[in-house]
Amino acid sequence: MSVLTGDGGPEYVCDLCPNLCRLRRGDAGACRARAGGEKAVVSLNYGKLTSIALDPIEKKPLSRFHPGSKILSIGSFGCNLRCPWCQNHGISMAGAESPLHVETADPQGVAEEAARLSPAGNIGVAYTYNEPLVGFEFVYDTARAVKARGLKNVLVTNGYANGPYWEKLLPLMDAMNIDLKSYRADFYKRIGGDLDVVKANIRSAAAQCRVELTCLLIDGENDSGAEMEDMAGFIAGISEDIPLHISRAFPRYRYTGRAPTNLESMRRAAKIAKKRLRYVELGNI
What we know:
The chain is α/β, with parallel strands linked by helices. Helix content is 27%, strand content 23%. It has an eight-stranded mixed β-sheet. A three-stranded antiparallel β-sheet has the order 1-2-3, with no helix packed on it.
C-alpha cells in the first residue's frame, strides 16, 4: 500500500491486485471488499461469510485431489473482475452495503469447525464462491489456523493478484482451482483483468501445489477452436497432467437473454484440449 496526499486528504493505493485502486477514506475499491480507512486500506469483508457448506471436493472443481472427500467451503462478497456472465453475481458483485445474509466468523472458529467435521469426511477448508483473494487477510489468517490443525487448504480463484500477496499465500495452499477465463488479452481487458498476470500466477502455483484449471465456455466469446488450442498449449507447457475443466455457462447477471452454452461447442473444445492434455472434463452439463 502507498499513500498519496492531495487537497481531499490522504489517498491510499490498494496494491493487492493490478487494479491499484486509489481510495480515500470510506471509498470502496472496484472489488467492493476493500476500502480506504483512517490510516490504511482496510478489509470490508473480514470474517463475513455469505456462504458456508460441506461440499464434495469434486464441486470445487477438483478431480485429482483427494477424490471422494468433502471440504468445508466458505465465501464472502466481492470480486476484482467484472464478468458480465458471472454465475455467482449475487455475492461477487455485492459490497458491504448490499442486503446479504452474513454470518460472522473468525479464523480459529472456521478451523475448529473444519476439524469437527473431519469424521464426516472433511479434509479442510476451501475459500470459494466469491473471489477469495479480495478478502486476503481473512483467507491468510484462516489458512494458517487450518494448516496448524493438519488440514488442507483449497483456493478457488481467478488468480488475479499481485505477486507479493500471491507468493505469501502459496505455501499455505494444498490445492487450487484457478479460472483461466480466456486465452486472449483483449478478453481479459474487457472484464478488467490481465491475462499475463493470471498466466504467471498459474505457473508459480503449479510449482508449489496441486493446480486444476476451469474455463467457463461462453458461446461467441471464448469458444473458438484456435483459442482452445492456444490455451491447451500453454497449460501443456507447464504440465500435461494439469486437469482442465470446461464448464457450461448459464444465463446469469447481464447475459440473461442468452441460452446455456451449446453442448456441441463444449465437446468440440474438449476434443481439441485433449490433444495436449491428459485430463479434460466437462462441467455443469
